[in-house]
Design goal:
Elements lengths: L2 H25 L8 H13 L3 E6 L2 E9 L4 E7 L13 H16 L2 H4 L1 E7 L10 H7 L8 E3 L2 E3 L10 E10 L15 H15 L8 E8 L10 E10 L2 H22 L2 E6 L11 H13 L10 H4 L6 H7 L2 E2 L2 E3 L10 H6 L3 H22 L3 H9 L8
Parallel strand pairs: 3-4, 3-5, 5-11, 6-12
Antiparallel strand pairs: 1-2, 2-4, 7-9, 7-10, 8-9
Helix pairs in contact: 1-2, 1-3, 1-12, 3-12, 6-7, 8-12
Bound molecules: zinc ion (2 copies).
């Protein structure tokens, strides 16, 4: 039997379990680094399919690695499974993990015969925005020796090489001094005013930043009572730039806006996080071209959607993986419009027939792409010689 047909047959034999798992993870959303159930369920599915599974990886209890085959070319399928606070699987990471597991299972049937070792790597905490699971796993060696990495991410429509920019999340904390807001206001130091000054400064800064820069955040503590001058306030912000270099140009300018709030009010300021930024994605063009051909064979033609393909600018710690290992991160469409990622309406669309089709097509397109990579030729030779041991950049 043809190798790709054999992989498909293996996937078909596991299809109902893979889709059931996608729905189960969707129904039990867990936020970053707390994905205890999802990591356990994925590990059990892969273990049951004959994978050699390591649960808990590099001191990350909800990370895992599952290995099948012993071929020379080592391909990693990245599985994300964290949800968003309050709105569940509004980024469809249940689809990502099910597709990765499905691709792994499909490949396990043919890995040795085509010369592959396939790893499904469970990568927690993608939505964090700083020190995401893949960054910590990269730093701690979980990706050492991998020649190529891939994943698919749900979106309203298929996009082969989406624009993925650099990002950094941090928390700003101000400390002032409480006082009665009416009787003794002159005795207080208003930490909420510090945030107001900072937000005003950021608003003015927006005139002077690049169109590809992004600054957005929320106040996570704005004070306790209207009649108490707030002594403690905090906000979480994400700054983004087209590249890590752009991000590092923007970051100090944003930090100065927060310093302005401290200076104006006499509050003390502390910045926590922001130390392990998400890098922009470098899509490997040759692997992407193979994925495209395979996805097209499954009936996903990647229509030209013009500027919309690059208008959306998200960030992911898969960007950091792509700086170390030849990688792809195509978006797989779930026909969700007008619902878009990080909306409740999108959550609902991530457990539909269309979402299930994305799981199956994503799994098979990745599996067939890995089979193509393992085929003898210059691309495989290049991956074997350069994909492994490249210095990890975070
Ligand atoms: Zn996502
Ligand atoms: Zn997301």
């Amino acid at each position: 039997m043809d190798i790709k047909a054999a992989a498909r047959e293996r996937f078909d034999s596991a299809r109902s379990r893979v889709l059931e798992l996608s729905h189960r993870i969707h129904a039990h959303p867990e936020i970053g680094f707390e994905e205890v159930k999802a990591a356990a369920w994925l590990s059990e599915l892969l273990s049951g399919a004959g994978f050699d599974v390591t649960r808990g990886l590099c001191d990350l209890p909800t990370a895992f690695s599952a290995k099948a085959g012993n071929g020379p070319l080592r391909v990693a399928l990245c599985a994300e499974y964290d949800a968003l606070p309050g709105i569940g699987h509004a980024c469809g990471h249940n689809i990502i993990s099910a597709a990765a597991a499905g691709a792994g299972i499909a490949l396990s049937a043919v890995a040795d015969s085509v010369g592959l070792t396939v790893y499904v790597i469970g990568t927690p905490g993608e939505e964090r925005g700083n020190a995401g699971g893949k960054i910590l796993l990269l730093e701690r060696g979980a990706f050492d020796g991998i020649h190529a990495a891939m994943m698919v991410h749900p979106a309203p429509f298929d996009v082969l090489t989406p624009k993925i920019i650099a990002a950094s999340m941090f928390e700003v904390r101000y400390t002032g001094k409480e006082a009665h807001a009416s009787s003794f206001p002159e005795m207080g130091i208003n930490a909420a005013d510090a945030l107001t000054v900072a937000q005003t400064a950021i608003g003015l800064l927006r005139q002077h930043i690049l169109p590809t820069d992004r600054i957005h955040g929320i106040i996570v503590n704005g004070g306790e009572a209207a009649n108490v001058i707030p002594a403690h306030t905090a906000a979480r912000y994400i700054v983004r730039g087209e590249t890590l270099a752009d991000l590092e140009t923007l970051r100090p300018r944003v930090y100065r806006c927060f310093e302005a709030g401290a200076l104006a009010t006499g509050s003390k300021m502390e910045i926590v996080g922001g130390d392990k930024a998400y890098a922009e994605m470098i899509h490997n063009p040759e692997i992407a071209a193979l994925f495209k051909r395979n996805a097209e064979q499954l009936g996903r033609p990647f229509p030209d959607i013009g500027a919309a393909a690059h208008k959306s600018m998200a960030s992911t710690d898969m960007g950091n993986v792509s700086h170390a290992i030849p990688s792809i991160h195509p978006m797989i469409g779930i026909d969700s419009m007008p619902a878009v990622n990080h909306q409740r309406e999108f959550t609902a669309r991530c457990a539909t027939d269309s979402a299930d089709r994305a799981v199956c097509d994503g799994a098979l397109a990745m599996a067939w792409t890995a089979i193509d990579l393992a085929g003898e030729g210059p691309l495989r030779d290049r991956l074997l010689s350069t994909g492994s041991g490249v210095a990890v950049r975070t």
